[in-house]
Amino acid sequence: MAYLVNPVAFSLGPIDVHWYGIILGTAALVGLWLAVMEGKRFGISPDFFMDLLLIGVPSAIIGARIYYVAFKWDAYKNDLLEIFQIWHGGIAIYGALIGAIIAGYIYTKRKGYGFWRIVDVCAPSLIAGQMIGRWGNFVNQEAHGGPVSESFLRNTLHLPSWITDQMYIEGQFYHPTFLYESLWNLLGLLLLFWLRRRPFLRAGELFFSYFIWYSIGRFFIEGLRTDSLAFTAPSGLAAFIDALWSPMRIVFEPGMMDYGNVRISQLLALLIIVAAIVLIVVRRKKGWASERYADPIVSTKSPAAAGADAGEGI
Predict the structure, then answer these.
(1) Residue 45: count of CB within 10 angstroms of its CB
(2) Which residue from 181, 258, 300, 303 puts its CA 20 to 30 A from 10's CA?
(3) pLDDT tens digit sequence for 258-306
(4) Alpha helices in the chain (DSSP H)
């Protein structure tokens, strides 16, 4: 007998508490804990990261919604109130990252910290949050890939029944792309843990490494999905992206798209990978990355920094 997870964890009177919200809340708390633990090595107060979370989460939600609506404007332009009804679905992870990064930049500058130093500390938190958060898609039976056979899930991937059964949606089994991305992010988290103890790592480079790793996985996994935001691009660009994805065809078939010929997340992933690599190289050559990850992190607004500035004027 198939067992399906009820999206509602429990009810408090008329209020339903969904597993999706619980999972996202857990992801945020785990990310906060990781940042606080690493921040202690540099003498940064846990309150700093708690405030950063309180500012970053709503900014991420707003950014995720704006990003999605911008690329699906035809679906919203005649019903503007629907834009604010995010419980109907429609958010994008890259938009969430943009919103969180903008808010984080403003907050860290106001606190007197270097932006690259703080995002380095938070990079493992970001990928851990995404690793956990993808299980919300599992519960909601969303963000899956294209159709597959039951035997592929049970006998080829050797998935347990509680995952396989949940991938049976409206009479068809589907790729558990949530699982692929979650496992990829787990490997990325371990990689970041290893990298941040390497003496060669400069300020900002752990953050760039996070984006490179995540975007590589997202590029290939996105090609399996059936709900991608897309657009119609020149045939040469579409062929180029398809050629890069083609090694996946050894095992997988790409997911069908309802419109367009290029998935926006795939194109953005490629641009991010290139941009991150270029920034690492340029920042080193120009001497803009003189600080190392292991160097002390000091706020220009801390009492110690203020005292040092006063001493320089004596």
Answers:
(1) 13
(2) 181
(3) 899 999 999 999 999 999 999 999 999 999 999 999 999 999 986 655 4
(4) 19-41, 46-71, 93-110, 115-140, 150-151, 161-164, 177-195, 205-222, 235-245, 264-285, 303-312
CB 169 within 8 A of CB 141: yes
Predicted confidence (pLDDT) per residue in 91-105, tens digit: 788 899 999 999 999
Residue 172 has φ and ψ, to the nearest 5°, of -145, 140
- Please say whether the beta carbons of 225 and 148 come within 8 A: no
Give the residue carrying structure tokens 């990003």. Answer: 67
Name the binding residues: 134
Tell me which residue of 253, 254, 262 sits closest to 229, measured CA to CA.
262
Cβ-count burial 62-71 (b if 16+ within 10 Å, e if not): bbbbbbbbeb
Q: What's the token pair of residue 53? A: 């979370």
H-run or E-run covering 11: strand 8-12
The C-alpha angle 251, 257, 258, rounded to 5 degrees, equals 155
